[in-house]
Amino acid sequence: KDGGPLYVEYTTSDRSGRDIFVIVGSKGRIESIYIMLITSNTRLKIWAILRVLYLSAYVCAQDADGPQDGGPYQGKYIGKMNSYHHQVSGEIYAVDDTTFLLTNFNYDGNGADTFFWAGASNRPGPLGFIVPNENGRTNILGRYYNREFTLKLPDGKKITEIKWLAVYDLSSQATAMCFLNTFGDIYIPDEFEPPSTQRISQLSGKAHGVTSGPIQVLDAKTLLLPEFSYDGGGRRAFFWIGVGPQPSSKGFKVPDEYGYLDPIRPYLRENVKLELPGELTIFDIDWFSIFDLETKENYGSVAVPDGLNVPPSLVKIVPHKITLPNCVQLHKEYRVSWEVFGPQITIELAAQVGENEYMAFGISGSPTSAQMIGADVAVAYIHGHLGYAKDYNITAKSPCIKVLGQYKGVCKDELLGGLDDNQLHNAVRQDGINTITYRRTLIPTSDPGDKEIPSEGNVQLIWALGLLNEDKEPSFHDLYPRGSLSVNLGRKEAESNCFAFTRTQTTEPLEPWEIPHILDRNIRTFKATLGPSGGKRGYQGMTGMATPGFSWYINGYLAPELYLRRGLTYAFDVRGGNDPHSPDAYHPMIITDEPHGGIDRYHSIGNSKRKPPRVIAGVQFSTRGQARPTAAGPLCLARHSTERDRRVDDEFADFKKFNRSLIYKCDKVKDPVYLEITPNSSWPDTVYYNSFTHSNVGWKIHIVDSFASATAIGGAIQTQCSISWPFIFVLYMSYNFIF
């Protein structure tokens, strides 16, 4: 009932001799109570029990939208197909006003000219239309065996406009008349209402400016909060759901619109779409609330009516077994579970990540808040058939590099003079989920970078998910918390708040921002500054490479492609920082023949398996062969404002809008530093501007013999001054005429 099963509870009272049967619904409500006086006659007792089970099944069937097999909600049940020929059978649901769901569908495929066919006549006949198959095509139907798929009515037609759906063969003909051979059909009930988005009440704001428009239930797992506002003044407020007459602390967190389970941020008249966690659906809850877990206060809530006629969710449930007794859901896509035994702790990390992504988890650098600097973390990933859980220390917010003889950044313990204390136990990738289990001691050995895990009391934790770079080192993280996470890892009683992973079946990859092209024969000087790389739509999506979190901005553009002509001299005004003591503010510019750069890191870390880069410009070599940069200028850096959360950079449709949200801070320039280059015939057709210290900061330079060939190479090219193509043509003809 209500998308879930009914349960029969049976108790016996020895004193009165009465047997009590209670039928309990899926939400915990009592549906029916049967009290029977039963004698010691065993047969009568068995009959009574069977009778109650029959009555409970009847109650279930009366309120059901379809067969109750314990499976997920699939839409509004229409019925079973009437079978006439060719073993046609199946069950039909309405997903929405234009879509059918067919389950356990069978057809032997032996019809000559058979299609899905629908119409508005009283019964199946020649007045109808072909319904495209599950692939959206109108091909002759093949064989189906226990298949499940959806059919969408064509040309905007709706289920309420037809009276039947059938499997028809159009090839049979009689001498006097044409007829359609019906292999199976189903009739749409009169006044049938297909599932659709349902509007319920608006949030009843009680505190902290909580308001919204009428909440929309888009499908069985998705809520839309229109015009939602919350001032952010609560202590630990969450999106919160549960059962019962009113909101209470006994409930479940709902991940925010980005999948985070942190206390929610301030909102001001925003449309917020939320997905219910794990296997929970709208049929499993009685209310939705903005609830503060610290003060146990309800800031605003709405009751969820029973029996909402909504479409089924397209979200796929991806179950994942929890093998350790304690579990904390860090994010919709990430969880950690653990068990303490003796002086050791076993930790299992599980996340829905890509094949080239890592999971990071560890002890914060601060005992009171989440802090990267000073943190002791494990970086876990799977490469090929092998798993890794490497021990890292964080001394700076940058990839690991050597600064004045010392390693700084996100560095392996081994580089800092310590030991890798993590003992890998198991690593497996299944259904798009990486699961890695490792062990470590609670009390560290002599390793100065390792932190103690207390056997009692809370400890501050940090975590992240991100992309591995070309050296299988962690790059800047895509997902990470902003607030603190305090957990008692040594607790005596097991506790778990983890839920199943989910995957949206219709999710499309983010479209990267357009790569700008600078082709202007009049430009001989380029200004190179640094700025944020812009999330998955920015540098990462544009170039397909991992990023340390910052990139070169050339003439104000993020990682543009440049077009330079051989034989001409160009200069880069380098503003990447000139402090060699800083691991994240020292970026001399170099030109290389490969896209990654970071020659200093390549040689100092010494674990790269890639081909050594050839540096074409920007370094001088000592007598010992040591490379030294020649173009380290003052720092000019674009940053996010304090109000902006860089985790939502992908919300910007293009770089121009993203750039407007940044704040630029530039050092005073006393003596500009230029990197001068003159491409010649020995240069490859494609080179790359990069950073001397860090990899994956720059992008392409096309070296051409003439700008006419550059036009053919570049295709749709953006110029620095947005000059029209007719004007470029006039300039080109004038240039060739004069010279």
TrEMBL record:
Q: Which UniProt keywords apply?
A: Repeat
* Domain DM13 stretches: 75-182, 198-305
Q: For the DOMON domain, which residue ranges apply?
A: 332-466
Enumerate the SMART domains for this protein: DM13 (SM00686), DoH (SM00664)
According to the lineage, what is the superkingdom? Answer: Eukaryota
A Pfam family per the record? DOMON
Q: What is this protein called?
A: Protein Skeletor
Question: Source organism lineage?
Answer: Eukaryota, Metazoa, Ecdysozoa, Arthropoda, Hexapoda
